[in-house]
Design goal:
The protein is of the alpha+beta class. Helices cover 41% and strands 13% of the residues. The strands form 4 sheets. The protein has a 6-stranded antiparallel sheet with strand order 1-2-3-4-6-5, covered by helices on one side. A 3-stranded antiparallel sheet has the order 7-8-9. A hairpin with a 5-residue loop joins strand 8 and strand 9. It is globular and about 80 Å long.
């Protein structure tokens, strides 16, 4: 009897090698099963992923061949796991002719789930996605490995930092596909890959490096169109995919790049990820005015989380970049101290603000983020009423160090520079870090300056260093939320703003960022509540009034929305986004 006919071993509750205790099943496919396990040898029993692979045939020759293949592929996975955006392989072993891989558990969201629930991506978000994933793919190819199964569900957006992690390399699936033909020769029963993401040469069993480039390009196209590739037509004369009529992209250089990534014949494609990156760097990101449609994905079986019974149905209008009602991505500018609550401390330097705009249900979404100087740390105005039971420090976390006059002078200089001359401020912060590598204010200031310069991935890295020095540094979590929101990673923006409010419940500006994120996520009741919390702490915070107005409008509370927009306009004359939102209501309801 073939070994596959034997009863399947119950894995839940099993402890492999006396160490990895299986606690849940993640999934099952044609190539094996995936489980969540706890590593009982390590403190805290951290979770890991266990993959169980079984050859289709149980004869001795096939098992022997599979074992050799398994060992060689495991060596490759160990090597690739050195990259920070590829899970580490922690162990590999054989039990009863089943082959097991133990890998790092990535806490995050599959891109497939994100696309099913999110906006159709615009230029900036597609560009950021490619900039995040192509270096990882280049690393894989530099190590002479072809992934062979790049698709949304094999790309995980890590909760920790919002970066895309590449998982589930097709190479290990060869073990499951391995059989022995009647002549005793080992063959593979199927081509590894997923329909729609496999180019023709891969379907024929001859994948190339450019096959992975094709799959990554198709993934970006799915994000830009809201349609899986199997739902896109091909040009009957050229065989090329017809996708542009379904997309919201406007930057021709980016469109041309995606077309070249996904050419039907490999000779017409980019031949390496480094080539794609070189062309990507030529695209002027500052010239991109992103537009976004918020609508349910018609090709998804999942419900759209933005649907609200009291809200207007999602619009199919595309706001072009020259539309008079398309909010622009905001720039930093000064605002007066009079906007702040009277109980705020004296500030030497004016705080900074940022307005973020987007397009939601044919109404200009202009929710607001605020960033302030390091000196602008709020004092708890109502310490008796936190919303968390965790202790909140009265002052921002800091590290006690011997005062270095040179460092103090440079920090002061950087604060003065970072609004109008962020590159000069960045250089000064780096000079401080060279003197004091653990100067938390310098790392956070570096993050701040990089955010102003729209170098968001680098900003995230700098803030991560600040958090590594002191995990309770609320401003760093807050600045990370800003970077994620600018990257349109609203879930990560929400999580990091929430963390800032947990560390510092009286942090009005973090509550405001949280409201921004929730509004983008379509969670309007929570968005309204967070805006109200910000206003309880800072009653004259115009941006929070604007956020409250938007959430109220989406919930059908028109009178509240009008009053909130009027309040925002009164607090901040010339408040463009509040004026636009108020005018839209006037046109819609005649009042």
């Amino acid at each position: 009897m073939d070994s596959l006919a034997r009863p399947k071993k119950q894995m839940i509750g099993t402890t492999l090698r006396g160490r990895y205790q299986i606690i849940a099943k993640l999934g099952q496919g044609g190539f094996g099963e995936t489980y969540i396990a706890e590593d009982t040898d390590l403190p805290g029993d951290p979770q890991c992923v266990v993959k169980r692979l079984k050859p289709q045939s149980g004869d001795a020759f096939t098992i022997g061949t599979a074992k050799r293949l398994f060992e060689s592929e495991a060596e490759i996975l160990y090597l690739l796991g050195r990259h920070p955006q590829i899970p580490q392989l922690m162990a590999h072993f054989e039990v009863d002719q089943d082959f097991f891989l133990v890998q790092e558990f990535v806490d995050g969201t599959p891109l497939g789930d994100e696309l099913a629930h999110s906006h159709v991506w615009g230029d900036r978000r597609v560009l950021d996605f490619l900039r995040d994933t192509l270096p990882t793919l280049d690393f894989v190819h530099q190590n002479q490995v072809i992934h062979r199964d790049i698709k949304p569900n094999n790309l995980i957006r890590r909760n920790l930092d919002g970066r895309i992690v590449l998982i589930d390399f097709g190479a290990v699936k060869d073990i499951r596909a391995l059989v022995t033909d009647p002549d005793g020769k080992s063959t593979f029963t199927v081509a590894i890959g997923t329909p729609g993401f496999m180019p023709y040469e891969q379907q024929g069993g001859k994948p190339r490096f450019s096959s992975d480039i094709f799959a990554l390009g198709i993934t970006a196209i799915q994000a830009a169109t809201g349609k899986p590739p199997t739902n896109l037509d091909e040009d009957p004369h050229t065989g090329e995919i017809i996708w542009q009529p379904h997309a919201t992209l406007h930057n021709q250089a980016l469109i041309d790049l995606l077309n070249r990534m996904t050419r039907s014949h490999f000779r017409d494609r980019y031949q390496s990820a480094s080539q794609v990156l070189a062309d990507l760097e030529k695209i002027n990101i500052s010239a991109i005015a992103d537009s976004t449609i918020v609508k349910p994905n018609p090709d998804s079986d999942l419900p759209d989380p933005r649907t609200n019974k009291q809200a207007e149905p999602a619009s199919t209008i595309i706001f072009k970049s020259n539309s008079s009602i398309l909010p622009t991505l905001g720039k930093f500018s000064k605002f007066n101290k009079s906007e702040l609550a009277n109980n705020q401390p004296e500030r030497k330097f004016p705080p900074l603000k940022l307005l973020i705009g987007g397009t939601i249900a044919a109404i200009a979404l202009a929710t607001s983020l605020i960033m302030r100087n390091a000196a602008d740390r709020p004092v708890a105005s109502n310490p008796a009423a936190p919303i968390t039971t965790e202790p909140t420090p009265a002052e921002s976390p800091s590290i006690t160090i011997e005062v270095n006059p040179e460092v103090v002078e440079k920090i002061q200089k950087a604060k003065n520079l970072r609004q109008e001359q962020p590159s000069a401020a960045l250089q000064t912060y780096e000079e401080v870090i060279a003197i004091e590598p653990n100067n938390i204010e310098a790392w956070w200031g570096k993050c701040f300056a990089l955010n102003i310069m729209e170098r968001y991935n680098e900003a995230l890295t700098a803030c991560d260093r600040a958090i590594e020095i002191n995990p309770e540094y609320a401003e760093a979590w807050w600045s990370k939320s800003y970077a994620y929101l600018r990257q349109e990673n609203y879930q990560a923006g929400f999580e990091h703003a929430t963390k800032a409010t947990e560390l510092k419940p009286d942090f009005a500006y973090a509550w405001n960022n949280r409201s921004t994120a929730l509004n983008y996520l379509g969670r309007y009741e929570e968005g309204l509540a967070s805006a109200q919390k910000a206003l309880d702490l800072e009653p004259n915070l115009a941006d929070a009034w604007n956020n409250l107005g938007f959430a109220a409008e989406k919930l059908g509370q028109v009178d509240t929305a009008i009053a909130a927009y009027e309040k925002a306009k009164g607090l901040k004359p010339g408040f463009k986004e509040a004026n636009q939102n108020r005018e839209m209501l006037r046109r819609k309801f005649g009042r």
